[in-house]
Design brief:
The structure holds 2 protein chains of 2 kinds. By secondary structure, chain A is an alpha+beta fold. Chain A contains 5 helices and 16 strands. The relative contact order of chain A is 0.12. About 5% of the residues of chain A have low confidence. By secondary structure, chain B is mostly helical. The longest helix of chain B has 25 residues. Classes of the chains: A alpha+beta, B mainly alpha.
Chain lengths: ~280, ~170
């Protein structure tokens, strides 16, 4: 106590200064509207910035959940798209029936395993039989097609990626239909070859290659763009290099396409073939 | 002793009146505003106790504030002024010298010392005063310009006042 008193009296000027200066500042901030408002404004600004920073950080932590919900929403929105509906408007007498029925459904799935560097590449997803996935369904990504379901277990499915030497997809460019293949000397995961385009067709660099609608996918989905064309030696077809729009190295969420009329279509086609055989 | 207190009281009243009724209306485009009233604190005797010094500075500041309608602003500046005065005197003046030179007058302490003393104290007072008046960091060049111009004006007026009441060294 004595030491404290000595300390206080030794530096009394400083403590007097603190006391009187504090009183002055309190008076200044209390009774002068400009200084008062400035103090509150600047502290509000600082507090606001602090909240903004912490919000940014929090949203970063929630990024995973946000992604999940967004991809669910995307799947839902794709269900609403016009390209996933089947127009069965039938003329009956004079009545035009233009009701749209759903033809394609989308199931969202997350990629759990993926390869791009091999000759035959596969993608594994975390959806399977339990979620309604069957062998032979088409798979698309956010920016283009991905492949076909090859094997299905209860909870997982294996996709034969477009980057597979056996993969063949019906594709159309400027209304001309060809088949899209990969492999065969080209093992670049960004490039695929489009074959069976007649050589009289004039293609330009950047022309869009889309799905034809003849295979498992709705018509008009992006596949990629034309990179180069050159005639297939001796044949009357073109070899078209297609720059794929799907970035296979960065696949995160994909959508499995269910064609609700596929069975009906296949049954009918099988009947035709049987007839032809007979 | 009694006559000395009376002189200081008279100086207090005179300086406040001059400041409030004359110098308040004087100035160069609001850039150079003189604050001569701090001369009262500058001229207090060396042996003034710290507490009395702070109280007087605070009251002087508040008095000016009441007239300027800026409650607390001049009081804060005068409190800083009192602290700087204590530090400055403890550094530059020996305690033994108090018997011969009881007051920091120019006639007693010499022109150079007084000039230095007035410059330092005025500068700190004006720095605090004008910083708190402008009250934002973005106005820093403006604050410094005002501090320098106002300090020059105030010091000039102080020197004029000191020469008017010049007293030759007794020794």
């Amino acid at each position: 106590m004595r030491n404290l008193w000595i300390f206080l009296s030794k530096y009394n000027a400083f403590f007097f200064f603190i006391i009187f200066f504090t009183i002055s500042i309190v008076l200044l901030l209390t009774y002068n509207s400009y200084q008062n408002a400035s103090t509150w404004n600047s502290s509000n600004k600082i507090i606001g910035q602090a909240f903004q920073q912490s919000d940014q950080f929090k949203s970063y932590l929630k990024l995973g959940a946000t992604n999940d919900s967004l991809s669910k929403e995307n799947a839902w929105l794709r269900n609403q798209l016009k390209s996933s509906t089947f127009n069965d408007s039938v003329e009956r007498g004079s009545v035009n029936d233009t009701i749209h029925h759903q033809q394609y459904r989308y199931i969202v799935a997350k990629v759990v395993n993926n390869s791009i560097n091999r000759q035959n590449n596969f993608v594994t997803i975390n959806r399977g039989l339990r979620h309604g996935i069957k062998r032979g369904m088409g798979v698309i990504g956010p920016t283009g097609i991905v492949g076909i379901i090859r094997d299905v277990s209860d909870n997982f499915a294996r996709i034969q990626s477009l980057l597979h030497s056996q993969s063949r997809f019906s594709a159309s460019v400027n209304g001309n239909i060809g088949s899209l293949v990969w492999g065969d000397g080209n093992y670049d995961p960004r490039i695929a070859m489009l074959k069976d385009i007649p050589s009289h067709v004039i293609l330009k660099r950047g022309n869009k290659v889309v799905t034809s609608g003849f295979s498992l996918f709705p018509a008009g989905l992006d596949i990629g763009t034309v990179a180069t064309t050159n005639p297939d030696g001796g044949n009357s077809f073109l070899n078209v290099k297609v720059k794929l729009s799907t970035d296979f190295s960065a696949l995160q969420y994909i959508y499995v396409v269910t064609d609700l009329y596929a069975e009906e279509q296949q049954a009918l086609e099988a009947k035709e073939e049987n007839k032809a055989l007979q | 002793m009694g006559i000395s207190i009376f002189i200081h009281l008279l100086r207090f009243v005179l300086l406040v009146l001059i400041q409030v009724f004359l110098l308040k209306n004087t100035g160069y485009y609001n850039l150079a505003t003189p604050h001569l009233y701090i001369l009262f604190i500058l001229l207090l005797p060396f042996e003034t106790p710290n507490f009395v010094l702070f109280i007087l500075a605070f009251i002087l500041g508040l008095t000016i504030d009441v007239f300027y309608d800026t409650l607390g602003l001049n009081a804060a500046a005068c409190t800083v002024l009192a602290l700087v005065r204590i530090l400055f005197i403890s550094v530059t003046v020996q305690k033994q010298g108090f018997d011969n030179e009881p007051e920091p007058r120019m006639g007693l302490m010499g022109f150079r010392w007084f000039m230095f003393y007035a410059t330092i104290l005025t500068f700190f007072h004006h720095l605090v005063l004008i910083s708190f008046e402008v009250f934002r960091f973005s106005g820093l060049p403006y604050i410094l310009l005002r501090v320098f111009l106002s300090s020059a004006f105030t010091i000039f007026l102080m020197l004029v006042a000191e020469f008017m009441f010049f007293r030759k060294k007794i020794r």
